[in-house]
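Question (not urgent): is this output format expected?
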Amino acid sequence: MAKMRRKSDLPSKTCVTCGRPFSWRKKWAKVWDEVRYCSDRCRSERPKAGQTPERQ
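Got this back:
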């Protein structure tokens, strides 16, 4: 049986768009090095080339 892991033990990153931290997900296991956004919303609102992100 596999050993249980706590969510706090998983790797995490900071979202490029919103700046919030997000944790590793099993569906990202093969592409974790390429993941930059925490959600589809942040990915669709990513800053265009030459623009700085706006924070509210």
